[in-house]
Amino acid sequence: MSMRIFLKNCFVKFMDHAALPLYGAYELKNRLLTDSKAAILVYHKISDLEDGIDAFWNVSPALFARHMAYLAENGFNVLSLDQLCDHIARQTTMPEKSVVLTFDDGYANVYRHAYPVLREYGFPATIFLTGRYTGRNRLYWWDRQLTAEKPDMFDEVRTLAWSEIEEMQSSGLIAFGSHSMSHDHIGKLSPRRMEYELGTSRAYLERKLKRRVRYFAYPGGIREYGDVSDETARVLARSGYELACTSETGRNGLRESRYALKRIGMGRNDNIQLFRAKLVGGYDWVGYAQRAFHRVFKSPW
């Protein structure tokens, strides 16, 4: 593991611990004042896997099930991205305790472990697919490193098959968006290459899904890395997207840029106390610390 990845993981752990004491203050504030911001949660692998450079962001199936049960038992309004986009476009107040569920990278373990839970509760979600990796038995480079050492891990880290995607789409609960063609940091690409990553991925997914693809999630998704900019927003609009999600931490009100929506990353250490803090605003301040960290460490890896 590189020193940068080690420091990043230490930073996230520190932020997690620091967020917990703030929960009470945010809960009190929300009881006194109406809070109409939506928390967009982003999951990656739903897996017990503890290996790999991205293992910090793996959420076990048991923990994911507890997260969803908490939402159901505590009156949270789980919105689809369609509903969130409509609120922003129309500038209509979102319901209190609004949450949106998203998954990046399109892992098959989402089909195996998350989809049955979402179906049980009737929760909508959006999965962002990377064109070159979806349905082709190809692995992301960080997962190839893992399977080179442990070949039996292939099925644990493979991406979705088209048959799995079709089944989830036919349920009416699961929508799909683009995560680019190649999972490149698009803001650093030439204009021609950027058009390819955004426009070609959308056209390809629409052809395969036989549905309109309206939403995009930035690979990396950090402004300080060059992933998110005014130029990427212009290209996204030209390519036909209506909304884009970053990896920058925070919740979203009605005045957010549709092409730079914040999300809250979910990881293996997100017990119910931390999950609750993230939902109600106790983690929003981490966005400021996150930006400071990324200004110091200019490279994503």
3D architecture notes:
This protein is α/β, with parallel strands linked by helices and about 300 residues long. It has one domain: TIM Barrel, CATH 3.20.20.370. About 45% of the residues lie in helices and about 15% in strands. The chain contains twelve helices and eight strands. Strands 1, 2, 3, 4, 5, 6, 7 and 8 form an eight-stranded parallel β-sheet that branches. The mean pLDDT is about 90.
Layout of secondary structure:
Blueprint: H1 3-19, H2 23-32, E1 38-43, H3 61-73, E2 77-79, H4 81-90, E3 98-104, H5 108-121, E4 125-129, H6 141-149, H7 154-157, H8 162-170, E5 174-178, H9 191-209, E6 215-217, H10 230-238, E7 243-249, E8 261-265, H11 272-280, H12 286-296
Helix pairs in contact: 2-11, 3-5, 9-10
Class of secondary structure makeup = alpha/beta
**CATH level-1 class:** Alpha Beta
DSSP strand count: 8
Radius of gyration: 18 Å
Supply the number of structural domains: 1
- What is the quaternary state of this protein? single chain
The residue ranges in which pLDDT falls below 50 over 5 or more consecutive positions are none
The helix fraction, in percent, is: 40-55%
Helix and strand sequence? HHEHEHEHEHHHEHEHEEHH
Number of helices: 12
CATH architecture assignment name = Alpha-Beta Barrel
The CA-CA distance between the termini, in Å, is 10 Å
Largest sheet composition: 8 strands, parallel
CA-based shape: globular
SS strand fraction: 5-15%
Rounded mean pLDDT score: 88
Give the full name of the CATH homologous superfamily. Glycoside hydrolase/deacetylase
Q: What name is given to the CATH topology? A: TIM Barrel
